[in-house]
């Protein structure tokens, strides 16, 4: 049976890159999202690809429309990325719980009811950790993500729904324009425009290029390991100074500063790491700035 993917949160950064990978492969993709703003898709897709995406507008916190989409669109694989990020969950915890927690249960339940045997790949987060690497989230968003890992585990045990949860860390790249860790990408955009910028945190962290993250989710959705696995994305920790150096390797006169604050997470996420290719920081930063320049984001 040929593949047909549904990507929830397809209008977000990682979702847009997942669509790009699938379209490059010639695989049909259904974008399931409540929003209608396609600016991230227009940023990362190749010319003519936007017209190849099938759009289904739906609220992931409602089960029945999602079930209908799986059935009517003849979906074989699901990548679940729809979520409200940290600032939005903090501002409205009830809505955050409906989208992030109920929405994930709806995906798992719909997979169960549809008797889909493929692996659902879903987004967890480094926010499940505290600064010492313990599962003690410091945000309500992190609590929701940890709850989703528990839901996935029980759906595997009780219903045989296979899943892989991935925990990216500091995602950067075209389309990464909101969220706590988005300011490194904002610095790259400012450099491309010739504008000064100050990154909102410093220290060391694992940088994950958005295109790589999307590819990892597709790899996870195509895996056939069964059960409920959760992995961190890997790669060595690098400093924010390293990132600024990478920006200046492309834009030598870039005016980029760094705040003294650090993220409330470990510098490097614990293993096991998901076994997927990762772009070097220098190459990812170069590709990001070049795409900003090509799209004339000035």
Question: What structural category characterises the helix and strand content?
Answer: alpha/beta
Number of continuous helical runs? 10
What spatial form do the alpha-carbon principal axes imply? globular
Helix content: 40-55%
Overall domain count: 1
Order of helices and strands: EHEHEHEHHEHEEHEEEHEEHEH
**What gap, in angstroms, lies between the N and C termini?**
45 Å
Structure description:
By secondary structure, the chain is of the alpha/beta class. It has one domain (5-294): NAD(P)-binding Rossmann-like Domain (Rossmann fold, 3-Layer(aba) Sandwich), CATH 3.40.50. The protein has ten helices and 13 strands. Strand 2 (29-33), helix 2 and strand 3 form a beta-alpha-beta unit. Helix 9 crosses helix 10 (281-294). The relative contact order is 0.14.
What is the gist of this entry?
By secondary structure, the chain is α/β, with parallel strands linked by helices. The chain is built from ten helices and 13 strands. The strands form four sheets. A seven-stranded parallel β-sheet has the order 3-2-1-4-5-6-11, with helices on both faces.
């Amino acid at each position: 049976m040929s593949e047909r993917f549904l990507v929830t949160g397809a209008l977000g950064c990682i979702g847009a890159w997942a669509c790009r990978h699938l379209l490059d492969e010639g695989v049909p993709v259904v974008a399931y999202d409540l929003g209608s703003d396609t600016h991230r898709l227009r940023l990362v897709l190749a010319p003519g690809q936007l017209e190849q995406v099938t759009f289904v507008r739906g609220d992931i916190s409602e089960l029945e429309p999602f079930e209908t989409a799986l059935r009517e669109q003849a979906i074989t694989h699901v990548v679940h990325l729809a979520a409200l990020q940290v600032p939005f969950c903090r501002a409205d915890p009830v809505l955050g719980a409906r989208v992030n927690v109920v929405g994930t249960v709806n995906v798992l339940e719909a997979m169960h009811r549809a008797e889909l045997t493929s692996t659902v790949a879903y987004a967890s987060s480094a926010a499940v950790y505290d600064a010492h690497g313990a599962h003690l989230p410091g945000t309500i968003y992190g609590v929701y993500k940890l709850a989703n890992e528990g839901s996935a585990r029980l759906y595997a045990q009780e219903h045989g729904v296979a899943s892989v949860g991935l925990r990216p860390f500091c995602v950067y790249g075209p389309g990464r324009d909101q969220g706590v860790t988005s300011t490194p990408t904002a610095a790259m955009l400012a450099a491309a425009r010739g504008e000064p910028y100050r990154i909102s945190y410093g220290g060391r962290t694992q940088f994950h290029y958005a295109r790589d993250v999307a590819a990892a989710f597709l790899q996870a959705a195509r895996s056939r390991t069964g059960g409920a696995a959760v992995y961190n994305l890997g790669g060595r920790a690098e400093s924010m100074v390293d990132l600024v150096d990478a920006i200046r390797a492309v834009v030598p006169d870039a005016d980029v500063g760094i705040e003294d604050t650090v993220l409330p997470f470990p510098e490097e996420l614990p293993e096991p790491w998901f076994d997927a290719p990762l772009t070097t920081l220098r190459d990812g930063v170069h590709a990001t700035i070049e795409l900003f320049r090509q799209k004339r984001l000035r």
